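Researcher: Here's a chain I'd like modeled. Treat it as a single chain, no partners, no ligands.
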Amino acid sequence: MKVIRTELPGCVVIEPAVHGDARGFFYESFNQQRFRDAGFDFAFVQSNVSRSARGVLRGLHYQWPNPQGKLVSVLEGEVYDVAVDIRVGSPTFGRWAAAILSAENKRHFWVPEGFAHGFVVLSEYATFTYQCTALYDRASDAAIRWNDAALAIDWPIAEPSLSDKDMKAPFLADVPHDRLPTYP
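Model: Modeled as a single isolated chain. Structure tokens:
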């Protein structure tokens, strides 16, 4: 397993060791001891899978006051995946990191608690998986606008397909600080 640090402390790309031959491949998508040895101690309580078509953008989502950390990856297709630090008082508040995740590269992206998360599908379809550190909590469910100019995320698409919730999400500056995570 290879851990690739991003410019956001705690937010990392993980490349699993892949063992393959003419029959196919095998890799561990999660091994608690290997992750602990790399400095990450996760306890996952919920696993989710979504499938989306090309151009679908999901995000930028987060939960507060019941935050979720997410280990995300792609089982089919390719996505541009983004994490945004929205922790009030963080030295990297409002900054983002991105990774291309695909069935081909088998990369995982760790999105820590206190970060907003989103992705856009680059392939015809993508099957996306999330391992979460907290259960989904409808009362804590929140979002910020995907195209917030203050964040200046370099999305590889100008006009994505969005849910009603994501179209109407507020800009980060318009979210009251008591509805955002705090640092640390």
